[in-house]
Amino acid sequence: MKSKFFILALITAAIAGNFISCTKETNAGSTPVVTELNLPATAYHYNSCISNDNVITLGRVLFYDTKLSTNNTIACGSCHKQSTAFSDNVKFSTGFESKLTKRNTPPIQNLQNSLNFIVNNGQSSGLSNSLFWDGRETFLPNMVLKPVLNHIEMGINSMDEIVNKVKATPYYKDLFEKAFPTEEINITNLAKALSSFTASIISSNTKFDNVSNQTATFSALEEQGRNLFFSKYNCNGCHQTQSLNGYEQGGGFVNIGLDGNYTDNGRGGITNNSGDNGKFKIPNLRNVTVTAPYMHDGRFTSLEQVLDHYSHNIKNHPNLDPRLVGANGMPIQMNISGQEKAAIIAFLGTLTDYSMITDVKFSNPFVVKK
User: Fold this and answer.
1) What letter does residue 153 receive in the DSSP assignment?
2) Residues 269-290, mean pLDDT to the nearest whole number
3) Radius of gyration of the chain measured on its C-alpha atoms
4) CA-CA distance, 148 to 179, in Å (whole number)?
5) N or C: where does the chain have the smaller number of CB atoms within 10 Å of the terminal CB?
């Protein structure tokens, strides 16, 4: 790992008072909403060892810029909203032609392990963090371009089209020169910047973390929920809350008996292995209280419904995770009481990182022009 990537340069990200306007069509046929780019005179400090502040600032602008969609209506940040831990608060997200995505938008947090592109100078470090519900990507600089090129989400037709749109946008010249002083605007640097920003979104300042650091204590109800989560119901067997990644080691794909017959085979659709049918990535439970609806298809609107599923609604399936199968070979019935559900949800509330979901340096830099 080259030491220069540990040195966080504090270089000016934008000239003070220099606001560049752009136009965004919110809906077909509606009045355009005119916005302007509002960046601080000095780049925000991201406290990151993976890239410098100017690269991350460029990535922040790209993340929120609707110009990365074919008709200038949708940005990455349109579906990944900061207030909901960069997830979406609807079952399926709306793409550039008002079509709906096929799966629920997952949150973005603690993805550093997928950014070996930068931390190891282009050589794979062996670290991985499966991305998307089906794990079809493990390399963050590749993943960040997939929604841009998706025919439902953002609709760009080619890598060249992305680069040409960015080159034609005046404010990117200065931003790219600060981020990559000796290099041109190209797809590699664009992906580096986008992935650097998404990897800088760290959730590590929760009540759970503060209790672990002995700077806070759980309430009685939260402590009961913690015990139920870690012991009686062993939720932590899959959702390892002590890890920032928040899921079990060695893959993190399970079939939890949502259906007896899946219309979406999840991981099995990628591996073409019937033994993977109905398996989906175990989600990170940090900020889970703000990321409803839940599951890959957003079928549950509340944590109460999620717990109801585990309590008495697990469906039988050949690939059902062994931890959810009883001694009789059938799905277990946890029979979680109402009081226990309240305690578990109280504990899950301690995983909310309020600083992350309100931090201005992760916010949308485009503001409505008055």
Assistant:
1) T
2) 96
3) 21
4) 21
5) C
Q: What length does the chain have? A: 370
Contacts of residue 69, defined as CB under 8 A and 6 or more positions apart, other chains included, come to 75, 96, 148, 153, 154, 155, 156
Task: Identify whether the C-beta of residue 369 lies closer than 8 Å to the C-beta of residue 35.
Answer: yes
What percent of the chain stands above pLDDT 70?
Answer: 85
**What pLDDT digit, counting tens, does each position of 8-56 carry?**
332 233 323 333 434 444 544 456 678 899 999 999 999 887 789 999 9
Query: What is the SS3 assignment for 289?
Result: helix
- Cβ neighbours of residue 178 under 8 Å, at least 6 residues apart? 11, 12, 13, 43, 54, 57, 58
Take residue 353 and report the two structure tokens written for it: 């990182």
Q: Please, which pLDDT band fits residue 113 given cuts at 50, 70 and 90? A: low
Cα distances (Å, whole numbers) of residue 151 to 43, 94, 248, 323: 34, 12, 32, 38
CA pair distance 127, 264, nearest whole angstrom: 28
CA 303 to chain centre: 19
pTM: 0.87
**Could you give phi then psi for residue 164, rounded to 5 degrees?**
-65, -40
| Distant-in-sequence, close-in-space partners of 31: CB < 8 Å, separation ≥ 6 | none
Residue with tokens 């000796």: 182
Residue 120 CB coordination number (10 Å): 15
Question: Which tokens is 172 given?
Answer: 């990117």
Alpha helices in 11-155 (DSSP H): 53-64, 76-79, 116-119, 140-143, 146-149
Q: What is the pLDDT of residues 332-361, one digit of tens each?
A: 999 999 999 999 999 999 999 999 999 999
Q: At what angle do helices 303-312 and 338-349 cross, to 10 degrees?
A: 130
